[in-house]
Amino acid sequence: MTNVKNRVLILDFGSQTTQLIARRVREAGVYCEMHPFNLSLERIRAISPKAIILSGGPASVYDPDAPSVNKAIFRMGLPVLGICYGMQLMAQSMGGQVEKGVRREYGHARLYFAESNELFYGLAVKPASHQVWMSHGDRIEVLPTGFKAIAWSENTPAAAMRHESLPLFGVQFHPEVVHTEIGMDILKNFLFRIAGCVPDWDMHSFVDTAVREIQERVGQERVICALSGGVDSTVTALLINKAIGHQLTSIFVNNGLLRKNEAETVLAFLKALNLNVRYVNASERFLAKLAGVVEPEKKRRIIGEEFIHIFEEEANALGDVHYLAQGTLYPDVIESVSFKGPSAVIKSHHNVGGLPERMKLKLIEPLRELFKDEVRGVAKELGMPEELIHRHPFPGPGLAIRILGDVTRERLEILREADAIVLEEMKKSGWYYQVWQAFAVLLPIKTVGVMGDERTYENVVALRAVTSLDAMTADWAKLPYDLLGTISNRIINEVRGVNRVCYDISSKPPATIEWE
Catalytic residue numbers? Predict the structure, then answer.
C-alpha cells in the first residue's frame, strides 16, 4: 500500500510461524510485509520500514550455508527485533558466540525477567515466571559487546537481550504464538514504544486507499474480473466496481469442477450485488484438458492456464480490455514464493503459480496484501451480506484437487453428492459457521464392504473440517461424533459408489488444508 505511513518489514528465515508474526503485527493495527531474508539493502531502503523483525528458522547460524543478512541493517538506526534464529543471527553478526545447547528447549518454558525495560514495559518483573513457547537447540553462549541479557529460562541464560544504546532486541522464544502468554504485549511494546509506530492499518483505510490506487492505475481502461463467487473474488469485483463502475466486466467461468448447483447459486447472488457478469460454460474444455492427469501441480497449472485462455478470449470479444483482476490473497503469495526458492514452494496457487508467461492482460490484485479475515473485514466495509462473507473458501481449481487421481465425470458426480451432504449437515447442525472449512475428498482407492448381505468393492470418501484464522495454520475440527456419524451414514446410503467414510485429523502444518 503506497499510502501507508507505518510499515514493518519481516525478514523470513523459514520458520513455520513467520506468517503468525505478520498476523500479530497487523492485529495490532500496523501494516507489515514479509520478504525473504536475503532482501537487498536497496529494497529495504525503498520499503522504508519503521522497524525490522527477523523471524525464526530451522537452520543453525554456524552452518556453512546458514541464511544471513547484511550486517548493515543493525547500523541503520532502525529498531530490530530478532526472534529465535533471528536473535541468534543478530548476536553472531554483532560479534557474539552461538553454540549448540546442552539441552534442546521445545514447547512450554518458564521465562524469568532480569530487568525492567521498554520491551517488557507494563509486564511485572517480580512474578515468579511467565509461560513462553520455545523451539530451539542452539543458544547464545557469549553476548556481543554492548548487549545484555534481560530475561532467562532454566535452559537459556540469555532468553532475551537488548543493546544498551542501539534499538536492537532479541527474544529466544516465540512471542507470535498463543502459547506465549505475554507475546502480544511484547510485540506491541516493540511496535509502539520502541519503533514509534501508530496503529493506522484497518479495513476502512484499506478500501479508501485501494479505490484511489485502482482509479490512478486503470484510468479510463476496461477491466475484466475473474469471478468464482467465493469471498475473495467477489470482494475484488465489488472493490473495483466501487473504483471504476461500468468499466468493469466480471467473468464467471463454469469449469465443470464446481460443487452441486454452484453455478446457479453463484449467478443468483452476483446478480443481487448488481455486478455486470458474463457467464461462460467451459466444462467440456477443462475436463478434456484434465483427462488422465493425476499429478496435483500439473492439475493446478492446466486449470490456471485454461482460465487465462478463456479470460483472454472474453477480453477480445469485449474489445479494448487491458486488465485482468483476480482475488489473490497474501497466503497465496506466501505459499507460492518460498524463502528458499522454487524448490521449497508448498504448492502453486492457480492465480499465482499457474499463470502463463505469455499472458497479454495486465494483472490487478487489490487483495494481494491481505489475509482472509482482513478480506472479510473489507467485505463488511463494502456491504456484502453476512451469509456471503462467511462462505467457506473454495479453491480455484475446484473439485479437481479434491479428487485424488484422475478427474472424470463419474468421480465428479460422486464427490458432488458427498460434498453436498457434508455442507447440508454442517449447516443444519450449526457447525458450518464454527469452522473455517469443511468438505469431502474422493480417494483413489476402493475398499471391501457389505451392503444388503452382498460384498461391495467401492470408493472411499474422506471428510475434512478445520478451524483457522487465516489458513496459514489450521487445526482439525473436533466435530461431535453424532454429526460425523450422520454425515457418514448419509453418504454411504445416498451416494452410489461409496462404502467407506474416514475423517482427516491432520493439522496444518504438517499437512495442508486441501489434500492436493
Answer: 84, 174, 176
